[in-house]
Amino acid sequence: METTYKLSDKQVSTSLSGESVILNHEKGSYYTLNEVGTFVWKTLETKEATEAELITGILENFDVVKEECTADLNTLLDDLINEGLVEKTK
Questions:
Q1: β-strands 19-24, 29-33 pairing
Q2: Is 90 inside any structural domain?
Q3: Among residues 14, 18, 56, 63, which is most buried (max CB within 10 A)?
Q4: pLDDT digit string (tens) for 39-67?
Q5: For residues 77 and 33, is the Cβ–Cβ distance under 8 A?
Q6: Hey, what's the torsion of the CAs at 71, 73, 77, 79, to 10 degrees?
Q7: Record's InterPro entries (predicted)?
Q8: Is residue 88 a contact partner of residue 5, using CB atoms and an 8 Å limit?
């Protein structure tokens, strides 16, 4: 079964000028995401998603090659998981 991702309960977020601003309320740390990161975040706000679903959405909405998209998404997901903002669900 493929791993899915979801937002953790340790955060609150809002959109501001096309970017996401996120607060990890346990750490008291703020984070911002660029346009592509915001797309990923908004997707995860609406549903749990697999890496493949996120990649497909990014490729459909942004001018990026699949290899770069995959590498950047993996880095983003790893960072968000390490900061307690996103969780693996399966």
A1: antiparallel
A2: no
A3: 56
A4: 999 999 999 999 999 999 999 999 999 99
A5: no
A6: 60
A7: PQQD, PqqD_sf
A8: yes
Sequence-distant (≥ 6) Cβ neighbours of residue 39 within 8 angstroms: 57, 58, 61, 62
Query: Distances from the Cα of 39 to the Cαs of 7, 15, 16, 42, 46, in angstroms?
Result: 13, 11, 13, 5, 11
* Dihedral in degrees, nearest 10, Cα atoms 47, 22, 33, 16: 100
24 inside domain = yes
Evaluate if residue 1 carries a pLDDT over 80: no
For residue 41, what are the domain limits? 4-84
Classify each residue of 76-89 as buried b or exposed e, where b means 16 or more C-beta atoms within 10 Å of its C-beta: bbeebeebbbbbee
Number of domains in the chain: 1
Q: Is the pTM of this model over 0.85?
A: yes
Residue 10, domain member (yes or no)? yes
Instruction: Report the distance separating Cα 70 and Cα 55, nearest Å.
Output: 7
